[in-house]
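FIELD: query
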Amino acid sequence: MRSQSTLKICHVTSMHDWQDDRIFQRACVGMARFGHEVHLVAIKDEDSKESEFISRGVHIHLTPRRQGWKRRWFCSIDVINKAIELNADIYHFHDPDLLPHVNKLKKNCPKSAVIYDIHENYAGRFADWGLPAFLGNWFRRYEIRKINSIDGITVVSESMKGLFKDAKVPVEVTRNSADLHRLKEINFDEKTEDGGAPVIVTSGSHSHARNCLQTVQAIPFTKGPNDIKPIFQFVGRYMGNIKDEMIEQSKKDSTEDQLQLDGMIPWDENFKRIARAFCGCVFYEDNPNNRVGVPNRLFEYMYCGLPVVVSNFPELKAIVDDADCGLIVDSEDPKSIGQALSTLLSDPVRSKQMGENGKEALAKKYGYHVDLEKLNAFYLSLLN
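FIELD: result
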């Protein structure tokens, strides 16, 4: 076992891309900045030419990609076996698919601390997947049993922490926040008041689950001063047929000239694009998973100095109210969305202040640098 000042940390994922924002870009790279020896075991993607390399100070180990029904089970075995070879002080795994194999990890690395990072309320999502509710209840009991055989867990919010009150191991909250250290590398364009139509941006993945149709339906209810028509800009990827449905809805409402559907661009350029907007939207359908989650795009908007309009869920509301950085809406109701956006558009001075409030709150309280310090302390406490 190493000294407390320098740890050998191994993050393990069988389902996420090795460059995943939460796992690699924030947790792994962040811990490497602390001076720890950090390894990441993941599945090889289509673009990966090597299986072993170093990226941003992190040792990457990629196991073969499998197809079809073999993927979940055998990919999980592959990454666990590779992780065991590394003999780390800390094992931090990120997928429920790995739960059946944690006993093997504990048996082979008895002096190591093993942590389960819970990104979502998986048990609460069973209904979304069209599965009977009793299966979700069964999975939660199974999840708790496996958790109690390891050393600790991390979750993304205080609300999610409450779902695991039956866990007998330590629980730490590490939010899906923005990494200011990485964002400071971007040279943002100076925002200018050029008299153009204000842009209301929604970034990320677009789907019914993110209330994209309701956002498009809100366009007729959104009024800018002096009859200015704001642009509703969606940037990112579009799931299923949602893009066609959004276009059809805008045609139905005769708002095609206000709808702008943009795709993916490089990460840093996307931030520059978002930063030019007037405000940002964070909308989700009401379900058990969304009520306890905190999406990182909220923090990204805050970093860009945008006022935000968010769904009325406890975690989102708590942050926005505390930071005084935006408005809360019923995102199932297009009229509620439109009225809130109209309020921001009618008072640009107040809206700008909200944006500045959000940026300040991120720097002082909500940025990932705060969570990284907590995670580092959590590692050390488990080893002690």
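FIELD: remark
The radius of gyration is 22 Å.
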